[in-house]
Amino acid sequence: MKKALIIVDVQNDFCEGGALAVPGANEVIPYINLLMEENEYDQIVLTQDWHPANHKSFASNNDRKVGESIILNGVPQFMWPDHCVQGTFGAEFHKDLNRDKVTHVIQKGKNTEIDSYSGFQDNNHFMKTGLDDFLKYHEIQLVEIVGLAMDYCVKFTCTDAVANGYITCLHFNGTKAVNVKPENGRDAIYEMIQKGVTVLG
C-alpha cells in the first residue's frame, strides 16, 4: 500500500512570533522531521497558505475586528489577522522544517473571495487544489497528516482525505490547535474520529 505524508501549513506566520501563531507550534517541527527520517513515504506533500494581500478572510479587508465572523459567499468566515500573504516571510515554510524529501507543494487560499482551510479544496467546495489528483496519480491509498492548525486546516484536510477515499491517520504529536475557544482542539479530535480519521498518539 502506497502512503503519503501531508504536512499542513508549517509556515512562519503560524509559528512562534508569527502573525497568527499557534500555541506550541514550534514543538511539532522536530516530530515531523523525525517522521520523515524514520519512515518510508512514497510522497511527502507540503500545503502552503498563499493569500493575496486583499484576501477577504482578513479582518483588515472588511473593516472588522479579528475574531468577528461574517458570511462570505454563503459560508461563515472567521475574521483572521493578515497572514501568509504571498511572497512575504510569514508565508515561507519554517526554516527548521526539513524539506529534503518533499516531493510536492500545494498552495491554497489564493482566491481573494473564499478561504481554503483544507489542502484538498476551498471552503465552498467550488475549487480543488490538485492534491487529490496528485495522490491518485501516484496511487496513494494511505495518508498520514501533521501540521497546523489541528482545529482548522489540519481537521479539514483530514476529513476531506477520508471523503476522497484515503485511509487517513492524524499524528496527534505532530499537530497543535489554535484554540480560539479552549475546547476547539478537543472537539476537532472528536469530529475527525467520527468521520473516520485514525488518531495516532
Automatic annotation (TrEMBL):
Its EC number is 3.5.1.19. The lineage of its organism: Bacteria, Pseudomonadati, Bacteroidota, Flavobacteriia, Flavobacteriales. This is Nicotinamidase. Coiled coil: none annotated. One of its GO terms (molecular function) is metal ion binding. Residues 4-199 form the Isochorismatase-like domain. It is an enzyme of class 3 (hydrolase). Gene3D superfamilies: Isochorismatase-like. One of its GO terms (biological process) is pyridine nucleotide biosynthetic process. Pfam families: Isochorismatase. Keywords: Hydrolase, Metal-binding, Pyridine nucleotide biosynthesis. Belongs to the isochorismatase family. Pathway: Cofactor biosynthesis; nicotinate biosynthesis; nicotinate from nicotinamide: step 1/1. The keyword Hydrolase applies. InterPro entries: Isochorismatase-like_dom, Isochorismatase-like_sf, Isochorismatase_Nicotinamidase. The keyword Nucleotidyltransferase does not apply.
